[in-house]
Amino acid sequence: MNRHHHVDASDRAAATGRTGLRLGLTALIGTFLAIAGSFSMSITSGWVASASAAPSSPAPRAPAGATSGYRLLGGDGGVFAFSAPFYGSAASDPALCPPNTSDREMPNGTCWSMATTPDGGGYWILNASTGVLSTYGDALSFGSPAAQFAGVGRENVPNFIDMASTPDGKGYWVLAEGLSGLGSVEHFGDAGFYGDETTTPGPSGHVGAPVALAATPSGKGYWIVDSDGGVFSFGDAGFYGSMGGTALAAGVVGLAPTLDGRGYWLVGADGGVFSFGDAQFGGSLATVRLNRPIIGISTDPTGTGYWLAAADGGVFALGGAPFEGSLVGTPLVRPIFAINAQPRPTA
What CA–CA distance (Å, rounded) separates 60 from 176? Predict the structure, then answer.
């Protein structure tokens, strides 16, 4: 495991304190101002969306013949697909992702993360409160946190923050945050365990709360990023820098690795992007006045760019990633909590 405070970022925000804990996201929603730029889209069916126009300043397109797409996940389990297949959503069953204000601070729904199968033929949706895992398309169940914590008192059941698939789709990792505030990793199927924040020696270095998990291309390691920008690398995941120890204008909310796993981008709730290793800086939204906070980042599988997503469903294509649509201006039942790229088809 590697954890460092070395800073090598392409974009930095001014110091105004640390925010961005995942549980505090709902408090951020509604605090940002008017959005810059315009997006146009149309809903094609209940939870599927497709782009009808590009943004006013379109990003460079991916190479000819390449396929890009992404899905947004709402807190109620609603799935919105843009140039990506739709296989169903947890919103069709109100019992799967209801708000939980009785023993958790989750008023905007409990489905916070999803992972796509490597062939793009399905996906998993994870309930952050109960650990129930729902499968769609060709995604198979290899166990769930709900089953793993069955019979455990609610006060000892962690929040299930994020998940990632193994390269063959026959397993997955789930990032959890327990009473200690440290990130623990639950592994299922052929997903190996390579350590987590609870296995690191000593209590030092953990300032923020765990917010995201990403696997290496080989599936032999993974990264955990905390809200203070600290990056923890496990297995064959390389450490290429972090924002740990640096005052940020807004907490970090996501990490996206490059295609070869030799670098990664971090994104803050204010849209600030920080690039490390071979990750090329393709722009950020740190100087853009946003309507809602950024909630995640996803790598464009056809190139070097990335997408940022906001809680209102806004999608921002940067670094050459193509814009495929967004939900800006569309009334949502619950805020958006995740963006997930459609994998690139293999030959």
Answer: 37
Q: What's the mean pLDDT in 317-336?
A: 97
CB 28 within 8 A of CB 293: yes
Alpha carbon separation from 186 to 64, 70, 165, 217 (Å, rounded): 39, 25, 12, 19
In the chain, the amino acid numbered 7 is: V
Quickly list DSSP for 311-336: TTS-EEEETTPPP----TT---SS-E
Distance CA 298, CA 267 (A): 10
Domain boundaries, the chain: 2-56+68-341
Nearest to 339 by CA among 127, 128, 73: 73
Structure tokens at 239: 């450490």
pLDDT value at residue 68: 84
Gap between the Cα atoms of 72 and 311, Å rounded: 10
Q: What is the mean pLDDT of residues 61-67?
A: 42
Q: Of 146, 59, 45, 26, which is closest to residue 95 (Cα–Cα)?
A: 146
Beta strand 315-318 with 273-277 is: unpaired
Burial of 17 (0-12, 13-18, 19+ CB in 10 A): exposed
**What does CATH list as the number for 2-56+68-341?**
2.120.10.30
b/e code 176-191 from CB counts within 10 Å (16+ = b): bbeeeebbbbbbbbeb
First to last CA, the chain: 34
Neighbours of 328 (CB within 10 A): 19
The predicted model scores a pTM of 0.83
Predicted confidence band at 344 (pLDDT cuts at 50, 70, 90)? confident
What does the block give as tokens for 268?
């803050």
Hey, what are 281's tokens? 């800086």
Rounded to an integer, what distance in angstroms lies between the CA atom of residue 224 and that of residue 173? 11
Nearest CA to 242 among 232, 234, 250, 251? 232
Amino acid symbol at 341: A
* Cα 256–Cα 326–Cα 10 angle in degrees, nearest 5: 35
294 and 273 Cβ atoms separated by less than 8 Å: no
